[in-house]
Amino acid sequence: MTTISFVKVGGAALNQTPLDWKNNLTNILSAIQQAKSAGVDLLCLPELCISGYGCEDAFHSASVAERSLEILDEILPHTVGIGVAVGLPVLVSQVMYNAIAWLVNGKLCGIVPKQFLAGQDLYYETRWFKPWPSAFQTTIEHKGQTIPVGDLLFDMDGVKVGFEICEDAWVIQRPGTKLADLGVDVILNASASHFAFDQYQTRCQIVREGARVTNSVYVYSNLIGCEAGRIIYDGTVLIASGNRGLIASGTRFSFRDVLMTTAVADISLNRLYRRKNTNYRPNHPDQQKYTIDCPWQFPIPEKIPVASVIINPVAGNRKEEFARAVSLGLWDYMRKSRSRGFVLSMSGGADSSTVAVLIWLMCRLVLKELKWTDIQKKLPWINTNDTGSEDWKTLMPQLLTGVYQASKHSSETTLDAAKSLCESLHGKFFNFEISGLVQTYTQWVEQMLERPLTWEQDDLALQNIQARVRGPGVWMLANVYGALLLSTSNRSEAAVGYATMDGDTCGGLSPIAGIDKAFIISWLCWMEQEGLAETGPLHILKLVTAQRPTAELRPLESEQSDEADLMPYPLLDRIEKLAIRDRKSPLEVWLELRDVAEWKTYTPLQLYKYVEKFFLLWSRNQWKRERYAPSFHLDDENLDPKTWCRFPILSGGFTEELSQLKKVVVEYLNKLTAGENI
């Protein structure tokens, strides 16, 4: 056994797809080859990267674990000369576990299952897997060999390698603590951790702390892209070492299938810190119990390696993260659903304009990273133009078809905004006139009712028929093109049901349903004035940002606006956070708003009416949220009932709670009127 000072470690972000065995294997082998070419000794791949993380109830099928083991056998010959951690589902005594297989020099040395399962919010691992008991080891038979399985540590030429799997690192009694007592030198963390605003900083903290408290090299690898439809993974790869903190950090939001990050770490320095730590208590009796020997010899470097350089990824700027995350999500959703571009009903307003700009950003960012030939491999239907041009102006007409559907209540302002924006983005643009269709349906119902429909008596029906008439045309166009129809609903409107089912909710994907309206408006202003470094500002958006949000479903002389129909968007978003994210009662919400300076511009009575409206509309419209097209998860305030925020479709509608609120408000206003000091 040689005395090792330096180890070159690597982590790879992979763009995997559930049950896409060929694609997933190709990416894994590509990562291993890249790592070997870079001289990596130990490589960490993401969680469940063989099967895909988002297999959902397919994990109940034993065939998924069996096929994963078959793929593992195909990977083994490619691991000669390297150690690779590969995530996969494993059956032990006919029970399914989320595990890492440790492959060294062409041999399966052991399997380490996950001890702490993610079972909250977006995650349902406890539905499919069982947690592995700490300190337990067993074996399984595979291809005539006995394979160790359990809570294990691997000795490679004197370097001890251990594992945490995603959630293992987020709990108080993380496995890394015990690994430290066993003298671990390198901890590899295979993860599938979703993107959300501010999540990156938390991951950095966990990885730094994991390396510091264990005096080890800590490698964290994550998935990248939209893997299964709703979650976007940012592709974070982080490497930390002992008290040095982060020594390498990979690029986020890449459009590549494989993204490698490597670093050279000095394990002798970590061992020195461990010897100097007076509180370190090695667990000598258990070292033999937990440790598996792996035949291996580290190469001795000819010279001391140069220190690694940290790449500073995008972090902290929510507007930029939103742009990059959703652009990546759109790209993966389109190609993995085998859609031929997008069809978008463009109203000239903020929501549809945001989606159009995100498609444009997707196009620009893809071309920044991928060659045209690579794009054509992923999108075989893409063509160059007659001049052989291969730029974004050639690609965009094949990616975006915008449709403006005018009724007699539509304005020239919104038509000009929609047409000008779509043409500036080089998308195809169509203008349909729907007034005749609306009139046909209206007359049909009037004949059945034997009375005319009027705005005074039938306001909602006359508004909704316009939105619903717009649905079949764009669906038909999407079918003709084989494209993906995008819905433009946002989270603020989803909260109160301010949408017409089978109208503006039509679509196979609702990319901005996870973000609030106030953010969307501020994001458009940012894109207009600043934008991404790769694109610069998009000044044409002034045609959108100068408008007041409106559905344009009532006669123009009514001057309809979203906020007049609902309430000011910033206030709506604040009530939503208090009521849904923070689970406060109507009374608690009103009291908090009443006593905060930011909302003093509204009277206590106005605040009461807005709070009452929110809770009534929220409880009445859960059925709409259940029917929304899939949306991307962007922060921890999502309203998606499939993955985040469950609420009964039928409920008491907060009747008693709102009665309590009304009683308190009346008493409060009476005291104000009486001049009492309250």
Task: Please characterize this protein's 3D structure.
A hairpin with a 4-residue loop joins strand 14 and strand 15. By secondary structure, this protein is an alpha/beta fold. The longest helix has 27 residues. The strands form five sheets. A seven-stranded mixed sheet has the order 15-14-11-10-9-8-17. Helices cover 41% and strands 18% of the residues. The chain is built from 23 helices and 21 strands.
For the report, how would you describe the main beta sheet? 7 strands, mixed
Number of helices: 23
DSSP strand (E) fraction? 15-25%
Could you report the average pLDDT, rounded to the nearest whole number? 93
Overall morphology: globular
Overall SS class: alpha/beta
Number of strands: 21
Low-pLDDT runs: none
Side by side, the strands of the main sheet go 15-14-11-10-9-8-17
Tell me the helix content: 40-55%
Termini, distance in Å? 79 Å
Rg is 28 Å
List keywords for this structure.
seven-stranded mixed β-sheet; alpha/beta; six-stranded mixed β-sheet; 678 residues
Summary of the model, kept short:
The protein is α/β, with parallel strands linked by helices.
Q: What's the layout of helices and strands?
A:
Elements: E1 6-14, H1 21-37, E2 42-44, H2 62-75, E3 83-92, E4 95-104, E5 107-113, H3 125-128, E6 137-142, E7 145-150, E8 153-156, E9 159-165, H4 175-181, E10 186-190, H5 199-214, E11 217-221, E12 224-226, E13 232-234, E14 237-241, E15 246-249, E16 258-266, H6 267-276, H7 284-290, E17 291-294, H8 318-336, E18 342-345, H9 350-369, H10 372-378, H11 392-399, E19 400-406, H12 412-424, E20 428-433, H13 435-449, H14 455-481, E21 484-486, H15 491-496, H16 517-529, H17 542-545, H18 562-565, H19 569-581, H20 586-594, H21 604-620, H22 622-627, H23 655-673
Parallel strand pairs: 1-2, 2-3, 8-17, 9-10, 10-11, 18-19, 18-21, 19-20
Antiparallel strand pairs: 1-16, 3-4, 4-5, 6-7, 8-9, 11-14, 12-13, 14-15
